[in-house]
Each structure stands twice: as structure tokens, then as C-alpha cells.
């Protein structure tokens, strides 16, 4: 969640700030304009892309067990698969519910919520219970929705939602690890999040 996803999100944030917003994306007061001219060109293709990512995530997280030669390893990989699936589903449902509160379910935000849920569970996909995995993913999905609103408020134009889905959800997932894994400490997780993301943002900005 940190070494891959929030690292990418921090680098993306540096690039977004340097590039600036697309012409016409925000009005003179800094408010986002109607999405229509800037909408994704094909929602079905975006959906297929997320499904491909979701499928690949089983290898990404399951493969992190690094072994499947014993029953314990096989059971661990199975647990990781279940938690990965449930976290992605939790992200989808939570993002859909939150956007529905504003009057219209946003499919693109649901898809990004799936990514946010998957990113969040990647910090520790083995130890959480299935219910905890759903909650971790759901919070990741909510973070994506409100993280997008935060970027809008700052007039930051994140074209694909990389910063909320990878940086913000990655930070959440990393900081939650000590709740389900007694071998982790919150202070260590927090230090890792701050130091890695600050380093990556500064270096990426310079590069």
C-alpha cells in the first residue's frame, strides 16, 4: 500500500501540480466545471480495465505469500484471495452509496472506489477477518470519493483519480495494519508513510 501505491500516488501528485489543470477544467473561482467535456471516453472500457486490475490483484496479493508448498501457505493464499475480493467489493459498494447521497450514483467513482479498496487491503491482506476486509475496502472507497472532492477544492486536476485511489487509500491501508496485525506498530507505520511519501514527492517533483 505504501511502497507501491502511495509511492505512485505521491509521484503522480508532483506531476499533476507541475502540469497544472487542463484548460477549462476549473472556472475563474477555482470551481470544477461540468464534467461532460472531460468525461471518460468509454465507461465500458474503463470498467473492463478495472476488472482486469482486480483479477491481477489476486496474483499481486496472493503471490506476496511467496510460497504455496504447505497446507498453511495454501490456506494463507486462500485467505488473501478472499480478503482481496471482499475489499474491492467493499470499495465499490461504499463509493456507490456515498455518491448516491448526492442524488446520482457515479459509476466512475465506484470503479475508483474498487481500486481504493484493493489498495487499502494490500498493506495486510492476510490477517484481517472477512468482515474487517470489507470495512477496510469500504473506507478506502469513501476516501476515494472525498479525496476527489478535496482535490477539486484545491483546484488540482487529477485526470484518472490516481491520488485519491493510490496515495490516500494507500496511507489508510498502511495505518490500519496494527489493528489486525499485532506484530505491527502504529508509530512505525506512520513514520514509514510520512518518510516514504515525502521523499518520493520531493524527488519526483525535482525529476
Sum this structure up briefly:
The chain is mostly helical and 207 residues long. Helix content is 71%, strand content 0%.
Describe the structure.
- This protein is mostly helical and 207 residues long.
- The chain has 7 helices and no strands.
- The protein is globular and about 60 Å long.
Shape: globular
Query: Which structural category fits the helices and strands?
Result: mainly alpha
Sheet with most strands: none
Tally of helical segments: 7
The portion of residues forming beta strands comes to under 5%
Distance between the termini: 23 Å
Order of helices and strands: HHHHHHH
Mean pLDDT value: 94
Helix content estimate: over 70%
Which stretches are low in confidence, meaning pLDDT under 50 for 5 or more residues running?
A: none
**Quaternary:** single chain
Secondary-structure map:
Elements: H1 2-19, H2 43-62, H3 71-100, H4 107-121, H5 130-153, H6 162-180, H7 186-206
Write out key terms for the chains shown:
207 residues; mainly alpha; globular
Amino acid at each position: 500500500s505504501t511502497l507501491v501505491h502511495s509511492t505512485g500516488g505521491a509521484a503522480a501528485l508532483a506531476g499533476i501540480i507541475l502540469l497544472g489543470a487542463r484548460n477549462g477544467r476549473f472556472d475563474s473561482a477555482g470551481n470544477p466545471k461540468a464534467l461532460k467535456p472531460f468525461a471518460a471516453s468509454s465507461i465500458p472500457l474503463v470498467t473492463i480495465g478495472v476488472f482486469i486490475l482486480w483479477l491481477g490483484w489476486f496474483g499481486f496479493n496472493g503471490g506476496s505469500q511467496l510460497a504455496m508448498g504447505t497446507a498453511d501457505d495454501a490456506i494463507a493464499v486462500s485467505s488473501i484471495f478472499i480478503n482481496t475480493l471482499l475489499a474491492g467489493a467493499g470499495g465499490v459498494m461504499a463509493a456507490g452509496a456515498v455518491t448516491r447521497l448526492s442524488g446520482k450514483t457515479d459509476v466512475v467513482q465506484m470503479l475508483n472506489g474498487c481500486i481504493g479498496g484493493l489498495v487499502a487491503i494490500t498493506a495486510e491482506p492476510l490477517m484481517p477477518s472477512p468482515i474487517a476486509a470489507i470495512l477496510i475496502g469500504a473506507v478506502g472507497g469513501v476516501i476515494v470519493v472525498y479525496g476527489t472532492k478535496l482535490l477539486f477544492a484545491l483546484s488540482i486536476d487529477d485526470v484518472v483519480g490516481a491520488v485519491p485511489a493510490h496515495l490516500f487509500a494507500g496511507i489508510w491501508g498502511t495505518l490500519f495494519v496494527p489493528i489486525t496485525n499485532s506484530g505491527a506498530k502504529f508509530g512505525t507505520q506512520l513514520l514509514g508513510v510520512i518518510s516514504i511519501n515525502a521523499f518520493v514527492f520531493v524527488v519526483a517533483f525535482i525529476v
